[in-house]
Each structure stands twice: as C-alpha cells, then as structure tokens.
Write a structure and sequence with these properties.
47% strand; Immunoglobulin-like; mainly beta; single chain; 6-stranded antiparallel sheet; 2 domains; Jelly Rolls; 2 helices
C-alpha cells in the first residue's frame, strides 16, 4: 500500500504544480537496509512491480539459468547488492531484473556498479533489455567500465527503445559482463566481487493525473529528486516538514504555512531519507521515503 501511495502522490503533484506529465519510479533498488530478504525487492515501486527481485545469474542458453547467492555490503550511499562467482563469465554472467510498465513511456535506467580492490570482480559490462520472447538489445550508452569504488560504473538515464513504451509485455533488463578482465587488470577469479546499487527504472506517467487523490495527507515531487528543489503538497495545511536519515537522525526541519510549498534539498547528500509532515489538524502522516540522486 505504501508503494502505491508514493507513486500516486507523485502523479497528483504533477497536477498540483501544472505538469501535464510526470516521471514515475516504476521500480528502484537502493538497498536501504542491508537485509537480503528485504533489499532483493524494490524499496520504491508501482504495485505491479512490488514483488520483482534482483538476481545474479549464469545464463549460457535459455532456459539454462543458475541463480547465485546475493548478499549486501557497503554501497554508494547505504548498502549494495554483492555477488561472487564471476570467473569465466564473459557474455554469460549477469545481474537481472524484470518489470512491468504498461501505460508508461520514455523508460529510462539508472544504476551504479563497483567492485573490491581486495577481490576484484569484472571490469567490463553492458546493459541490455528485451521484451518477453524477444531478442536482447544493447542500450545506447550502456557500455560500463567499473572501478574498485563508486566513481566509475555509472549508468545515467539510459533510454529504452520506443518499442518498450506502453507495452503489456514483461521487460527484462540485465547487466552482463563482457570480458574476464577484473578491475585490477587481472583475470577475474572465483572470489571476485561485483556490486550493484541505486537501480532506478522510470517512465512518464499516462494522462489524467488530476484524477489521482492523495490518500496519506501529503506527497512530494519529483522523487527520486535530482535537483535542489522538492515540491510538497497536502490535503490539509502543512505546518512543518522533518527530514530524517535512514538511521533516524533528523537532518532538516522546515516551517511551512500552507497546502503547497517548495523546499531546498540541495544540501542533502545522495541517498534515501524519510520525510515527515505535520498537518494543521494535528495529524502526522506516516513518513514517505525520498531518494536524493
């Protein structure tokens, strides 16, 4: 329910602030907890993607696919997915997700990949996508070169081809290694580590956003937020906003006097936060997760 309301809130705010369309996060893996039974699944999603999961696979020829263990370690901001066993994996070993995006267009992919200096994993990757039953296609700009930190290995708003727009088919996206060279320039060993974090799949929402109702009392747009300005709206007058880190520490408090406002979030570091609104009627809705990119 929380994930549905977050997506619904984002669409309504487009109507509040005069946008005809708005970018919606269809599924995001930011790995906020480090718990594998939680972070394998998206922490932000539309309802149909809530049960989709991230996997590390060995795929030589379909349907001969082996799943490898995925654990979690320090990430770009909080935690990241980690897997080993990438040896001899060129053109066959990969990270993979599956999503649904019917009714959405202009689909885009964000992600961050890294490795470990002590146990270097694959350096060379490419990002591909396909519709159910169709062939894989390379994404423009999807050639990825990883390093042993989070300065390399970044995919930023890669576009899926037009035929992925408004499709009823499942969409598969994979990050497949393309050589057996490690981030240290050696051959990838069995204990070589590959990490992936901050996966976002976004799309432009359909028309008719004015019909969406804020059920939780307040909402925010855009989310993920890649700018310094965050739009907030409530069904009641908002008197204050509190922003917390995922560790429960308050990092920003803003006084508000109205149903709509814009706040400066430029000082917040990239990562996940919780935004709490205090309403004039005394209600304090459940906090909403905010992603700063």
């Amino acid at each position: 329910m929380k994930k549905f309301l977050l997506s619904s809130t984002m669409m309504l705010l487009a109507a509040y602030f005069g946008y005809g369309q708005t970018e919606v996060t269809l599924a995001a893996w930011t790995c906020p907890t480090g718990v594998d039974t939680v972070d394998l699944y998206p922490d932000i999603s539309t309802p149909e993607n809530a049960n989709k999961y991230l996997s590390a696979e060995d795929t030589v020829s379909w349907p001969n696919t082996n799943l490898r263990d995925v654990t979690f370690t320090d990430g770009a901001n909080t935690f990241a997915a980690k897997a080993t066993g990438w040896n001899d994996g060129a053109d066959s070993k990969l990270w993979s997700i599956k999503i649904k995006a019917q009714g959405y267009s202009d689909l885009r992919v964000w992600s961050k990949q890294s490795s470990s200096a002590g146990n270097p994993g694959p350096r060379d990757w490419k990002i591909q996508a396909r519709l159910s039953g169709e062939d894989w296609v390379d994404l423009n700009g999807g050639t990825i070169i990883c390093s042993n930190d989070w300065t390399g290995g970044i995919a930023n708003a890669l576009e899926l081809p037009p035929e992925f727009n408004n499709t009823n088919s499942s969409i598969y996206i994979r990050w497949i290694m393309t050589s057996n060279i490690s981030t240290n320039g050696t051959v990838v060993a069995e204990d070589g580590i590959a990490k992936i974090d901050d996966i976002f799949i976004t799309g432009i929402s359909p028309a008719g956003v004015e019909e969406v109702i804020i059920s939780k009392g307040f909402g925010m747009y855009p989310n993920p937020c890649g700018s310094d300005e965050l739009n907030i709206a409530g069904t009641e007058k908002i008197t204050a906003l509190n922003i917390y880190s995922m560790q429960g520490k308050i990092v920003k408090t803003v006084k508000v006097d109205g149903n709509q406002t814009k706040i400066d979030v430029g000082s917040l570091r990239p990562g996940a936060y919780l935004v709490q609104a205090v309403l004039s009627n005394g209600n304090i809705p459940e906090p909403e997760m905010l992603i700063i990119k």
